UniProtKB/TrEMBL annotation:
Residues 299-335 are annotated as: Disordered. It comes from the Bacteria. SMART domains: HTH_ARAC. This is Helix-turn-helix domain-containing protein. PROSITE patterns: HTH_ARAC_FAMILY_1 (PS00041), HTH_ARAC_FAMILY_2 (PS01124). It comes from Pseudonocardia yunnanensis.
């Protein structure tokens, strides 16, 4: 944990260093203290205490400099009275209320009294909501009496206390878990946002295409597939129910079908079975062989022998598998 104390003159510098750049105006006697818990890459938890009134403005020019993977801030007002203006919405920050802020849009934040905050700062890409949903959720008060908000507040308070005793991996997992609970809380305040063409079938087809085009990526699991398409894991399962399967089963099936195509194609006869497994994103040979036997009732070696004199696989499958073999990453541990 880091402890930082600041006066009014130092606040802008501190905000630029650990928060986002802004222009601040405050009382001459304004001062504060911030305790900072780093929770792995792109997630930070702050507990801060301000004395004196303050107005912080993030201008349109500052917001325009935000990267595509920019900062999101969710602030819970533990005590005091504040206001937040963003996206033409004015939200009141009563004690216990949480409000989401996005760095890519200008905003003004006003604290009129002594205030205590608990703030979760994270990368926008980690929040499992669509871009339109995120923007629509900004500057909307999350009711402290809402069950999801109560869960989130209690979790963040406890996490802040216990973070120093967690391992680095546990801190990372805990930070990501907090963002998942936040997404649940935000869905309770966000109006229904259309998905462009309004079709979940289109989103499902995008996810299926992504799987087929990224079979060689060993990091492509259900959680990662959901994150890349800005949906929750639960929603990913709901989407794949439309075709009578789960995202994990679909991913496994497509990898094994691609491997079968390579084993059936004489062009890959010189490629070791372990290399074919890696080419479809399966990094452990025994795991690959067991899954292949369950799927096709034979070992990969038997499949290759059976099709040794057969014709080549379809051109589209050849192309996809050849690209996968050329681009396959270094082996890790599991699929």
């Amino acid at each position: 944990m880091q402890i930082r104390e600041f006066s009014g003159e130092e606040y802008e510098h501190l905000a630029r260093e650990i928060y986002v750049p802004m222009i601040a105006r405050m009382d001459p006697d304004f001062c504060g203290r911030a305790a900072i818990q780093e929770l792995g890459e792109a997630v930070t938890l702050f507990r801060s205490h301000w004395k004196g009134s303050m107005s912080a403005v993030r201008t349109a020019r500052m917001a325009a400099r935000a990267s595509a993977d920019d900062v999101m801030i969710f602030c819970i007002n533990l005590s005091g009275q504040s206001e937040m203006l963003q996206n033409d919405r004015l939200a009141k920050w009563a004690a216990g209320t949480g409000i989401l802020i996005e760095a890519r849009s200008p905003y003004e934040r006003i604290s009129r009294t002594e205030t205590r905050w608990l703030t979760l700062q994270f990368s926008r890409r980690l929040l499992p909501l669509h871009t339109a949903e995120i923007t629509e959720a900004c500057a909307r008060s999350v009711d402290p009496a809402a069950p999801a908000m109560q869960m989130l507040s209690a979790y963040l308070v406890q996490l802040f206390k216990e973070a120093d005793d967690l391992t680095a991996h546990q801190q990372l997992d805990a930070g990501h878990a907090a963002i998942d609970v936040l997404a649940m809380a935000l869905r309770g305040v966000t109006p229904s946002v259309p998905r462009g063409d309004g079709s979940e079938e289109v989103l499902l087809e995008m996810m299926r295409t992504h799987v087929r085009e990224h079979l060689a990526d060993p990091d492509l699991r259900v959680e990662e597939l959901a994150r890349r398409h800005y949906v929750s894991v639960r929603q990913a399962y709901t989407l794949f129910e439309r075709i009578g399967t789960t995202p994990g089963a679909y991913l496994r099936e497509q990898r094994l079908l691609a491997a079968q195509a390579m084993l059936s194609d004489s062009r890959y006869d010189r490629l070791a079975i372990a290399s074919i497994a890696v080419a479809v994103g399966v990094l452990d040979l025994r795991t690959f062989e067991r899954a292949f036997r369950r799927q096709f009732g034979m070992t990969p070696g038997s499949c290759r022998h059976e099709h040794r004199h057969s014709g080549p696989a379809p051109a589209t499958v050849q192309s996809e598998c050849r690209n996968a073999a050329q681009e396959s990453p270094d082996p890790l541990t599991s699929w």
